[in-house]
Specification:
By secondary structure, this protein is α/β, with parallel strands linked by helices. The protein folds into three domains: about 130 residues, Alpha-Beta Complex (Protein-Tyrosine Phosphatase, Chain A), CATH 3.90.190.10; about 250 residues, 3-Layer(bba) Sandwich (FAD/NAD(P)-binding domain), CATH 3.50.50; about 150 residues, FAD/NAD(P)-binding domain (3-Layer(bba) Sandwich). Helix content is about 30%, strand content about 20%. It has 16 helices and 28 strands. Strands 6, 7, 10, 11, 12, 13 and 24 form a seven-stranded mixed sheet that branches. A five-stranded mixed sheet has the order 1-2-5-3-4, with helices on both faces. The chain has a five-stranded parallel sheet with strand order 15-22-16-17-18, covered by helices on one side. Helix 13 links the parallel strand 17 and strand 18. It is globular, with a radius of gyration of 27 Å. The model has no long low-confidence stretch (mean pLDDT about 95). It comes from Paracoccus seriniphilus. Its cofactor is FAD. GO terms for molecular function: FAD binding; hydrolase activity; quinone binding; sulfide:quinone oxidoreductase activity.
Amino acid sequence: MTLDSKRISARLSVSAQIAPEDVAKLKAQGYRAIICNRPDGEGADQPSFAEIDAAARENGLEARYIPVVGGRVSDEDAALFAAALEELPGPICAYCRSGTRSATLWSLSQATKLPTADILAATQKAGYDMSGVVRRIANGGKTPTDSADASHDVVIVGGGAAGIAAAASLKSRKPDLDIALIDPADVHYYQPGWTMVGGGIFEPQQTARTMASLIPKGVNWIKAAVAAFEPRENAVVLEGCRIVKYGRLIVCPGLKLDWGRIDGLIETLGQNGVTSNYRYDLAPYTWELVSGLRQGRAIFTQPPMPIKCAGAPQKAMYLSCDAWLRRGVLKDIDVNFNNAGGVLFGVKEYVPALMDYVRKYDAQLNFFHNLIAVDGKAKKAVFEVREPEKEVRQVEMEFDMMHVCPPQSAPDFIRVSPLADAAGWVDVDQATLRHKTYDNIWSLGDVMNAPNAKTAAAARIQAPIVAENVIADIAGGSAVAQYNGYGSCPLTVERGKIVLAEFGYGGKMLPSFPKAFIDGTKPSRAAWFLKERLLPPIYWRAMLRGHEWMAKPSPAEKPGT
């Protein structure tokens, strides 16, 4: 047999059955202790624990016997394993027939120490699926004694723009539908407004309302965090191991802003000239910095895709430059846009108008520059440069102000769930937004993997589509509406003018207005009026209330058409 230990944590690795001769190899690899989780006599060719123990003593390793019958990991077994992890010298190699029992014991032993998603991620990375014990992990490693705490016709995970809009669209179609919405937050934010806060146009309080004031009447609000999904059981597991059952599930918790992936960023955000419009509390600091800067270098960053509202990093640059130009100080400010990607904007028709403003503001475009570290006190940033057909290198840049767009990913509890694709996003059919594996699950908003722009405008169009298809499914029918990938990015190129980018799958332009009214490829005051005056009330009073202004679903194509 071949020794193949798999690292679970810094202290523990797990392995399939080992032989006495493997013990010397484990010692050479730095292990100091062994745990056997396989009962003697389980297999005909299996060495006994006494043989492993003798080899361990001969090599100066400690060994402990915690036998577990396959498929019967008890709470007591997990407690014994936790004690062994504390008492034995590390690193430790635990083994059973395949390593699964050892991985399960570790998962249960860490349930009170690590978030459920972190446990699932560690075991998943090592090649072990812990979905069968996820309820026990969420229950602090103990076997739950109850079943479902609640059951609803439709359960929606996420109370952001997508979740509340989907709930409202469902209620407008079927008022008696039993819907529960799961979200732990007290406050709901109009995130598209944060660019305007950072530009000194909106006040931050204009972008926030209480969650309770927005959840549609008749929708049950479960104020809790989701730990995991059990799609085969039609169940959502909440932190604390409460179980919510569903007939249909809609998944839309948004995405994760991964500030920690940039070394030193968290420690300096909101001070030392480092800001971001991607956070409610930081957007006002952006305007404070813009208002106070008179000379020096200003850097605006964009990480690798996907990110929500791909135009937002450059929107911050344009509005800042416009403010400096109006104050007569732009000539003394060195503006740099450092983009991890290779193009200014992904839909080529909008690039000429944007480049006009890049030239107007004399901004330096640095493509393939990805922010990897920040020293706020020293006012220095480090970028990894990955230009095609060139050696990867790092460059250091000093700054007086830096606006950071953080790396983004699916939330941890989504990424490690059975709902996710290989990249961690909810795996859906891009037309119907139905899950590819579980036919009573749908997803919309930033968390799903359809190749569309992750914007609030996209969620506004997606919500009625999901609602139509869920209602059709409840009635026993097939999908009746389809999504064309619509997304919109109002690019605020100066105070009073916007380039209104509207497009769908494949970069196809999908304008909402006649060209005579708004030509999206050119900056216009009409588009600014839409962004500043019309879109906020449309968001609060229409989209989140089930009034689908300019968002009526397109009918699904019938087979053969």
